[in-house]
Amino acid sequence: MPLDKALEIPQPSRTDELNIFGIPVTIEIDEGSIVVTDYIVHMYGVGTSIKEAVEDYKISIKAYFEELQKEEDMLGDNLTQHLCYLRNIFTSIARQMQPPKAQLNVSIAL
């Protein structure tokens, strides 16, 4: 086999994009393996179905965020940027999950 053929990387049979936690990710399907990857903090999830790969990605990104928080005082610039990016993402999600503040209807009788 010629060397250039031996070094070829197989291309995925399908690639799709979506957002998970507001993070743009790419889904690649190749011979039954599915990989969900983001190119911002460079995390990924793997599974035999899209649902499984997405769940694995969610677990990975949450664990990465928690680890960055624990090591915050020792992070270099690049990892500090990752922490800030993920902190903004998860803070925004937490705000969206809070119930709306009740409006008070106050009437004053004179």
Tell me what the structure shows:
- By secondary structure, this protein is α+β, with helices and mostly antiparallel strands.
- It has one domain.
- It is built from three helices and four strands.
- The protein has a four-stranded antiparallel sheet with strand order 1-2-3-4.
- β3 and β4 form a beta hairpin.
- It starts with a helix and ends in a 13-residue tail after the last helix.
Mean pLDDT: 82
Number of domains in the coordinates? Answer: 1
Strand order of the largest sheet: 1-2-3-4
- Strand residues, percent: 15-25%
Structural class: alpha+beta
Multimer state: single chain
Q: Give the termini separation.
A: 95 Å
The arrangement of helices and strands along the chain is: HEEEEHH
Percent range of helical residues: 40-55%
Q: What is the rounded Rg? A: 21 Å
Number of DSSP strand runs: 4
Shape: flat
Unreliable residue runs: 1-13
Number of helices: 3
Question: Largest sheet, described in full?
Answer: 4 strands, antiparallel
